[in-house]
Design brief:
The protein has eleven helices and seven strands. It is of the alpha/beta class. It has one domain: Rossmann fold (3-Layer(aba) Sandwich). The protein has a seven-stranded parallel β-sheet with strand order 3-2-4-1-5-6-7, with helices on both faces. Helix 6 packs parallel to helix 8.
């Protein structure tokens, strides 16, 4: 493999640590954008200077809920260099996932040798794996773990929207490999369906919904409780989520 460092020539010498967070599962509908939106709320709570990229050219959910997100056209691989170039102005870069194209990001990191030069950039890389109660996401997690190994930090998000357990993942070789690589695991509980439908219909984040006077008091409390539990989960993984 030919190593190219050209994409990094415009990046200033780092004065502090930086972090890149990317979703590394390409199955559609598993909650990639939902996770990113919830993570953005947590990053805002911590006052992090970040840039978010939305690579989904057919269904830009992240941009709909978080308009400051920048569109990233991954149909031209050289556009991914914008991710690293943005480190000049941001301490953290968050890249949402896109169905059926996730290998593009891993290919790009290998092509540019990013994982081997990241220390020169003062950069840490976190790959996020969204796991559901199915074999597809577990298989994809295992394949990603084989490719990046210990060169990145791993966050496994058990999305419980379909089931209250994740036995396929718990009994998998993928999990053993990820834990051996130091992966941290968090649980994303199922949101009450009527609240999920409301957020989608209104294109509201939870932060926005909780400020809306039309929201029923008890539903507001449900969102407060849900957010508190989720933020506590992320707090336990903050060592691999903050710059």
């Amino acid at each position: 493999m030919t190593t190219s460092r050209a994409p990094f020539s415009k990046v200033s010498a780092p004065t502090r640590s930086k972090r890149l967070i990317m979703v590394a599962i390409d199955k559609g509908g598993v909650g990639k954008s939902f996770f990113c939106i919830r993570l953005i709320e947590w990053l805002n709570l911590h006052g992090v200077n970040f840039t978010a990229f939305d690579p989904d050219f057919s269904n830009s959910t992240l941009t709909r809920f978080y308009p400051p997100a920048k569109f990233l056209d991954i149909r031209h691989r050289e556009n991914l260099d914008q991710i690293v170039e943005s480190l000049d102005n941001s301490d953290l870069i968050l890249v949402d996932g896109v169905g059926a194209h996730q290998s593009i990001f891993l290919d790009w990191m290998e092509e540019t040798d990013l994982l081997n030069v990241k220390q020169e950039l003062g950069l840490a890389v976190t790959l996020v794996l969204i796991i559901e109660a199915d074999k597809d996401t577990v298989h994809q997690a295992g394949e990603a773990a084989k490719r990046a190994g210990k060169l990145v930090d791993w966050l496994v998000v058990r999305n419980m929207k379909m089931s209250d357990h994740s036995r396929i993942y718990e009994q998998s070789q993928a999990r053993q490999t990820l834990l051996a690589n130091g992966a941290k695991e968090v649980v994303l509980e199922k949101l009450p369906p009527h609240l999920g439908e409301m957020l989608q219909a209104k294109s509201w984040t939870m932060e926005q919904a909780m400020e809306e006077p039309e929201l029923f008091l008890l539903d507001r409390q449900r969102l407060v409780s849900y957010s508190r539990t989720w933020f506590e989960q992320l707090d336990h993984a903050k060592s691999i989520l903050l710059p």
